[in-house]
Structure of ZIP family metal transporter:
Amino acid sequence: MVDLFYLFLLALLGSIIALVGGVFFLFNRKWSATLEKYSVPFAAGVLITVALLGILPEAIDLVGEGVLLVILVSFFAAYLFEHMFFGIHHHGVMHYHHRDYAPVIPLVILGDSIHNFIDGIAIGASFLISPGLGLITALSTFFHEVPHEIGDFGILLKAGWRKSKILTVNVLSASFTIVGAFSLLLFSENKGAIGMFLGISTGIFLYLGTIDFLPHADEGFPSRVKAVIPLFIGVLVMALTILLFPHAD
C-alpha cells in the first residue's frame, strides 16, 4: 500500500503539480515568460540526460541491446505522431496574436492527454525497476511539462476559454499520467515488458529533448551562450540526481 501511494505521488508530481507553468501563464504573464524562457533549455538537458543515463541502461539490462531498435522506432513514431496528427507547436505560443486556435483545440486536448498517459507509463515502468528511478523519471516529466503546459494554457486562452475551464480541462488531462503509471502495475512481474516500456520511454524522451525542446533552447535569450547555461544546469542537476538516488535493485 505504501508503494502504491508513493507511485501516486510520483505521478502527481509529473502531472498535476506540473500545471504550475500554466497557472503562472494565467495569472502572471511576466513570470510565465521568464519561466518558459529558462525552462525550455533546462528541460532539454533534463530529458536527454535522464534518457541516456537513467532509463536506457536499465532497459538494456532487462532486455539486452535489442531494445535499441525499440528506442529507434519510438523516436520516429513520436515524430510522425506529432507532425502528422498534432502538428501545432506549443512553445512560444504567447508570441502569436493572430492565429485562430479554436479549430485545433480538440486535437490539442487529445494530444496532451495521450502525451500525459505516455509520461505515466514512463514513470510506472521506472518505478517498477526501483523507486529511485521512478523519482528521477517523475522529476524529468515535471520539468518538461512546465513549459509544455504554458503553451497549452496559452492556446486555450487565445481560443477564448475562461480561466476556470482551462484549469479544469488541464487537470483532467494531467490525470491521465496517473492512469498511465498505474496501468504498468499489470506488468509488474514481466521484466521483458517493463524493459520494452523503458525503451519506448527512452525514445520519446530523446525525441522531446532533441527535437521538441533543444531547437528552441535559445529563444528569448540575448545570446546563445546564455542559453547554454540553463541547458547544462539541467544536465548537471539530473546527472547528480541519478548518482545520488540509486536505481538498481
Summary: The radius of gyration is 17 Å. Residues 2-244 form one domain.
